[in-house]
Design goal:
Structural class: alpha/beta
Number of domains: 3
Order of helices and strands: EHEEEEEHEEEHEEEEHEHEHEHEHEHEE
CATH superfamily of the largest domain: Vaccinia Virus protein VP39
Largest sheet: 7 strands, mixed
Helix content: 25-40%
Strand order of the largest sheet: 16-15-14-17-18-20-19
CATH topology of the largest domain: Rossmann fold
Distance between the termini: 65 Å
CATH architecture of the largest domain: 3-Layer(aba) Sandwich
Length: about 400
C-alpha cells in the first residue's frame, strides 16, 4: 500500500470498475481516508478494502476519473509521458501524422486514451489543451512540457483553453493562455482542403476535427449535386461539398460570425467561387420557409441535450429537424444527419429519425452509419466516448 488517499466504495458498487469503466459516481462512495481536494490523486478501494483503481478526485456527480488499474504505477511525469507516447503511437498506426495533406488531428481523446478529462488537439504546429477536470487542469504545464519533449520541432506552441470547461472557471486565476511558445490564428490542411483556425475564440478547441472522415465521405457524393449545409458554423461541410464538385452549395447558420467564417474558408479554397451562397437564419425557420429542394442536405446541429433531463426535448427537436430536412430533399436525395449529444444514444437517434420518416411518409434507407473520426476513437469499456452519431439516408 502506498501513501495516496483512499476512497472506499459501498458494497457491490465495484462492478463497473471491474468492467473497466472509468468513472466513479458520488452515489457509489462510502467514505474516504482523509479530506480530499479537487484534483487529488486517490486510490479507489472496494468495501472490503481491495485495490481497484487510481484516479483524480473531484467534488461532483463524477467524483473520480480513473487513469490506472495498476497499484504499482507511480503517478509522476514519466507515467503521463508513457500515456502520451501510447496515444501518439496509436495515431501513427492510423496514419495520422502531420503532412501536407493532413496536419490537424486529435492527440488525446480523454477516456479513450486513459487520460479522462483531457482533450489535446494538434493544429499545424499548435497543440490546444482543454481540461474537463481539475486534476488534468493542474497537470497542464507538465503535459505541455511532455508534448514539446516528445514532438520536438513539430510543436510551435501549446495553448491552454480550459476557462469554460472546469468547475473553477469563475476563478480569475484560471485563464486561457499559452503554456509554450506563441502563435496567431493559423491555417490547417484536412484531406487537401484548407481551413482557418481560431483556437482562441472558436468553439471547443477551434475546429470540429471529429467530422473529418464524414466530410470526406460527403465530398464523394457531391459531383454535380445541389447541397444544403444547415448549422454551417465554419462551413467545413460546405467546402467539402465544393471540393467534391457540387453544382451549388447553400450554407445556413444563425450566427453572422459563423457565416463570415464560412465565407472566409470557401474563399481560401475557391477564390473565385460563384456557386456558394450563405444565409443568416434560424435552421428550423429556414427549412420551414424555403421552397427550394436539394440533392443533399447536411444536418449537423449543436448538442440539443447536454444533460439527461433535457433528453425528451432533444428527441422532439431531432425528430422535427429531420422531418423538415426530409421534406426538402429531391427524389433519391441524401440526408447526412448527426447528433453530438452524449446523452442521446445511437438507438435513440435512430428512433428520432424513424419517427421523422414516419411523420413525412417518406420511404428511406440507411446508406451509412457514421461516428466520430478515427482519432476520436471509442473506448469499448466506456460507451460515453461514442458521442457523435450519424446516418446517411436516401429518400424516395
Amino acid at each position: 500500500m502506498n501513501n495516496l488517499p483512499k476512497l472506499y466504495l459501498k458494497q457491490g458498487r465495484e462492478k463497473s470498475l471491474l468492467k473497466k469503466h472509468l468513472w466513479i459516481f458520488s452515489g457509489a462512495v462510502y467514505g474516504v481516508s482523509q479530506d480530499l481536494q479537487d484534483g487529488d490523486v486517490v486510490e479507489v478501494l472496494s468495501s472490503s478494502k481491495e485495490y481497484l483503481a487510481t484516479g483524480h478526485f473531484q467534488n461532483g456527480s463524477i467524483c473520480v476519473r480513473i487513469f490506472s488499474f495498476n497499484q504499482a504505477d507511480t503517478i509522476d511525469e514519466m507515467f503521463w509521458e508513457h500515456l502520451i507516447v501510447k496515444a501518439l503511437d496509436r495515431r501513427k498506426a492510423l496514419s495520422l501524422t502531420p503532412d501536407e495533406h493532413n496536419n490537424a488531428f486529435r492527440i488525446i481523446h480523454g477516456e479513450s486514451d486513459m487520460m479522462p478529462g483531457l482533450i489535446a488537439d494538434y493544429y499545424n504546429g499548435v497543440i490546444v489543451l482543454q481540461a474537463h477536470s481539475v486534476g488534468m487542469f493542474n497537470l497542464l504545464p507538465t503535459l505541455s512540457n511532455i508534448f514539446v519533449k516528445i514532438m520536438g520541432n513539430k510543436v510551435k506552441a501549446v495553448y491552454s483553453k480550459s476557462k469554460n470547461t472546469i468547475k473553477q472557471a469563475e476563478d480569475e486565476t484560471v485563464r486561457n493562455q499559452f503554456l509554450y511558445g506563441s502563435a496567431d490564428n493559423l491555417i490547417i490542411s484536412e484531406n487537401d482542403m484548407k481551413f482557418n483556425i481560431d483556437f482562441v475564440n472558436g468553439q471547443k478547441t477551434g475546429f470540429f476535427l471529429d467530422q473529418r472522415d464524414n466530410r470526406r465521405l460527403l465530398s464523394q457524393y457531391c459531383k454535380g449535386k445541389s447541397v444544403l449545409n444547415i448549422f454551417g458554423y465554419t462551413g467545413a461541410f460546405s467546402v467539402a461539398a465544393l471540393f467534391g464538385g457540387a453544382s451549388k452549395v447553400v450554407t445556413v447558420d444563425i450566427s453572422a460570425d459563423a457565416i463570415k467564417m464560412t465565407d472566409d474558408n470557401v474563399a481560401l479554397n475557391f477564390p473565385c467561387c460563384s456557386n456558394h451562397y450563405t444565409v443568416v437564419a434560424d435552421a428550423f425557420e429556414y427549412l420551414t420557409n424555403t421552397t427550394e429542394k436539394f440533392d443533399i442536405i447536411v444536418l449537423d446541429p449543436p448538442a440539443f441535450a447536454k444533460h439527461l433531463d433535457a433528453k425528451d426535448n432533444a428527441m422532439k427537436a431531432y425528430r422535427r429537424l429531420n422531418a423538415l430536412g426530409l421534406k426538402k430533399l429531391n427524389a433519391n436525395g441524401l440526408l447526412f444527419t448527426f447528433s453530438c449529444s452524449q446523452v442521446i444514444r445511437k438507438t435513440d437517434f435512430l428512433t428520432a429519425v424513424y419517427n421523422a420518416a414516419s411523420d413525412t411518409n417518406k420511404n428511406i434507407a440507411i446508406v451509412h452509419q457514421l461516428h466520430q473520426a478515427t482519432d476520436h476513437c471509442i473506448n469499448i469499456f466506456h460507451p460515453e466516448t461514442e458521442y457523435l452519431k450519424g446516418f446517411v439516408l436516401i429518400s424516395d
